[in-house]
């Protein structure tokens, strides 16, 4: 090694040591208070610096090309840029799609109504409302990280800025549309290009992230189920957090798929299926918890011994999967536990039914053996779900040749919410148009533009007023910073390079704020509106009058939108919970009588979606009410799954005719119990207990082993349903207002 290489190596070592002193590996970086500004994390600082440089390059190219409004290129960079490559590319694709749709619609709008302002305003409002309606129905949760919805947001955004610019000069609408599209494409291309330069081992890191996500989910589920078997009374609270984490991790899979590139197989599909199986595993755990807590049910020594082994396995399972790529040792241990559960069920049946050398057990002993057998049966079903989850996880780590497996992203459409979001956006925009027409305000079109931007971005959210309030705060800070730059700093520079140096620090601050969750929406607003307020140009500088004629419509537009969102179809958490409960009860009735039976995975994912929505929109609701509703959702999910299993048992026609008739009558009662006025809760609960007693007596008289096992499976479902109905009576009784503050 020569002296130059030695010097370079020493320099590199010193740099790494310096960075490790600033950002120690493995130590979480706190971003609270003002630490996001003076002590940011390494990746946060890298994102902010990269995006700032990219936006300045976009601004410089737009100025070099002598485009009319170069600030839109810098704005597009900030709108598309995200912390990871997958998110950036996914958002860029949907933003580009939305830009094309919005541009076409804007040209058609201006061409159709060049001299009809009221019709123009009406169709502008209807168009953005339509984009919001479609966006609400697209797959995934309505959050700012869902880039399918962002495609519709970008459509409304582009539709507004092009049509409002073009209506003032309709003869040049095509040129205006092309120039705006050029800015957006320039920003997207630059951000995608620059972000790709900072990616190392992208595909491998995406695969590692899929593995980490599953291990995080399976470890949380394993610890929760181990605590459940150990008798932890707070296990349901832990299960709620695991369900929420599964949803969050599942939403990130599509970004990892983007990072894997065109060479990927079906790793993402298997990863989604693995996480769905983890949710199913937890639902089986809830079934087992219900069986354990049945009054009078005391687990025997055999179940306690098997349970102890399962607990030890669940606590160490994630670590074993992480240490090796070979899942066969884990599956071998799991298979031994499954065999032990099956053997315990067989031994219990032999003790109950008797053999050539022993008499059948007396009724009292047979009842105890039956209940303990149900515990082993429930534990075995839980281990079966765990096996499927591990198999899917292995398929996500080791892609198979000629694999055609597909697990699509589930969509749970809410047509009422979509109509509400659409109407709210349309009314807000139409009102801003009436203000412009009636007042003849010279900056009215600018005011309408900002209102339309906010409606496009936030009307797909359930609480747009809250998001707009945060956006207003960021816009105020952007106005203050822009005022300093426009009125004091930027009049001096005469070259682009000096101007870029002046803008570097203000933009960098906005990028750093983006990493602090409390400031995300404010930071987005600051980053988007700062270039607009600066209004850079080749032949001119923004003067005081022009600055205030841009800043004032911005602040007033956001303030106006915030108050209209609060007044027009405002979000009501009490009503949201009541509607959710009504739909849950209606859904149970549907599962009990529908000709087309939903899958168990669909029921789990649908209720987990409700679960996460309830946690997201809790606001200032007392914890007791939220906990009660969360318990009700989990209980409803458990009942729904066992109804599906009971219907599967009925369709196999292995039960004796008398038992078949008893279960059919119970299902008929279940199909009526969730009526809106009074319901049939009491009759359903009594019918379930009656079915349990009848089938329990029939089981002891049945001599066929296969039929007896089928009857035991039906008993497990009935016991779980009865337990959940008894312990959540107020939730399932439709005549009860159930904890709503307005009604209690």
TrEMBL record:
The chain crosses the membrane at residues 42-65, 94-113, 119-138, 434-459, 471-490, 502-526, 546-569. InterPro entries: PHBA_efflux_AaeB/fusaric-R. It holds the Pfam family FUSC. It is a multi-pass membrane protein. It is found in: Cell membrane. It comes from the Bacteria. Keywords: Cell membrane, Membrane, Transmembrane, Transmembrane helix, Transport. This is FUSC family protein.
């Amino acid at each position: 090694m020569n002296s130059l290489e030695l010097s370079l190596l020493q320099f590199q070592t010193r740099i790494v040591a310096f960075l490790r002193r600033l950002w120690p590996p493995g130590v979480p970086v706190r971003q609270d208070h003002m630490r996001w500004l003076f002590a940011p994390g390494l990746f946060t600082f890298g994102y902010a610096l990269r995006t700032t440089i990219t936006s300045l390059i976009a601004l410089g190219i737009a100025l070099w090309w002598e485009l009319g409004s170069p600030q839109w290129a810098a704005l597009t960079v900030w709108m598309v840029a995200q912390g990871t490559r997958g998110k950036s590319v996914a958002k860029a694709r949907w933003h580009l799609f939305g830009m094309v749709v919005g541009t076409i619609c804007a040209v058609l709008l201006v061409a159709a109504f060049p001299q009809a302002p009221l019709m123009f305003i009406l169709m502008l409002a209807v168009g953005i409302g339509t984009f919001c309606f479609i966006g609400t129905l697209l797959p995934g949760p309505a959050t700012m990280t869902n880039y399918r919805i962002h495609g519709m947001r970008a459509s409304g955004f582009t539709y507004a800025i092009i049509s409002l610019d073009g209506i003032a000069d309709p003869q040049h609408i095509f040129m205006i549309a092309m120039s705006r599209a050029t800015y957006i494409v320039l920003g997207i291309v630059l951000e995608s290009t620059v972000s790709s330069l900072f990616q190392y081992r992208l595909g491998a890191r995406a695969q590692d992230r899929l593995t980490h996500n599953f291990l995080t989910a399976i470890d949380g589920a394993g610890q929760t189920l181990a605590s459940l078997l150990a008798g932890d009374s707070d296990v349901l609270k832990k299960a709620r957090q695991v369900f929420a984490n599964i949803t969050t991790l599942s939403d990130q899979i599509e970004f990892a798929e983007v990072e894997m590139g065109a060479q990927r197989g079906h790793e993402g599909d298997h990863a989604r299926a693995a996480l769905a199986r983890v949710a199913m595993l937890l639902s089986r755990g809830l079934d087992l918890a219900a069986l354990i807590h049945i009054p009078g049910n005391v687990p025997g020594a055999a179940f306690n011994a098997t349970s102890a082994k399962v607990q030890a396995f669940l606590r160490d399972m994630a670590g074993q999967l992480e240490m090796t790529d070979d899942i066969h040792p884990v599956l071998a241990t799991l298979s031994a536990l499954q065999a032990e559960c099956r053997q315990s069920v067989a031994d219990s049946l032999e003790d109950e039914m008797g053999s050539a050398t022993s008499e059948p057990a007396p009724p009292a002993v047979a009842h105890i053996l039956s209940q303990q057998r149900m515990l082993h049966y429930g534990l075995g079903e839980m281990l079966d779900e765990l096996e499927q989850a591990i198999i899917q996880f292995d398929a996500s780590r080791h892609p198979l040749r000629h694999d055609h497996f597909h697990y699509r992203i589930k969509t749970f459409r809410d047509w009422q919410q979509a109509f509400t979001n659409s109407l709210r956006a349309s009314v807000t925009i139409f009102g801003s148009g009436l203000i412009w027409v009636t007042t003849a305000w010279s900056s009215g079109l600018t005011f309408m533009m900002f209102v339309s931007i906010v409606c496009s971005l936030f009307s797909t959210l359930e609480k747009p007023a809250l998001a707009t309030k945060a956006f207003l705060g960021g816009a105020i800070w952007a106005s203050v910073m822009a005022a300093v730059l426009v009125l004091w700093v930027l009049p001096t520079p005469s070259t682009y390079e000096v101007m870029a140096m002046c803008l570097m620090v203000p933009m960098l601050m906005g990028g750093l704020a983006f990493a602090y969750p409390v400031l995300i929406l404010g930071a987005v607003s600051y980053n988007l509106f700062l270039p607009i307020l600066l209004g850079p140009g080749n032949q001119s500088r923004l003067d005081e009058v022009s600055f205030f004629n841009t800043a004032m419509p911005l602040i007033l537009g956001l303030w106006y939108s915030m108050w209209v969102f609060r007044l027009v179809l405002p979000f009501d958490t009490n009503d949201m919970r009541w509607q959710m409960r009504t739909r849950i009860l209606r859904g149970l009735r549907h599962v009990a009588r529908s000709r087309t039976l939903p899958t168990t995975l669909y029921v789990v994912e649908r209720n987990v979606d409700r679960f996460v929505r309830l946690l997201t929109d809790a606001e200032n609701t007392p914890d007791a009410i939220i906990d009660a509703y969360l318990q009700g959702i989990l209980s409803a999910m458990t009942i729904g799954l066992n109804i599906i299993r009971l219907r599967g048992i009925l369709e196999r026609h292995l039960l004796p005719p008398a038992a078949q008739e008893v279960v059919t009558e119970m299902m008929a009662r279940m199909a009526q119990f969730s009526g809106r006025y009074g319901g049939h809760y009491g009759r359903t609960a009594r019918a379930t207990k009656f079915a349990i007693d009848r089938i329990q007596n029939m089981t002891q008289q049945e001599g066929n082993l296969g039929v007896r096992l089928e009857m035991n499976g039906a008993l497990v479902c009935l016991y779980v349903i009865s337990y959940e109905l008894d312990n959540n009576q107020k939730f399932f009784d439709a005549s009860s207002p159930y904890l709503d503050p307005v009604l209690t």
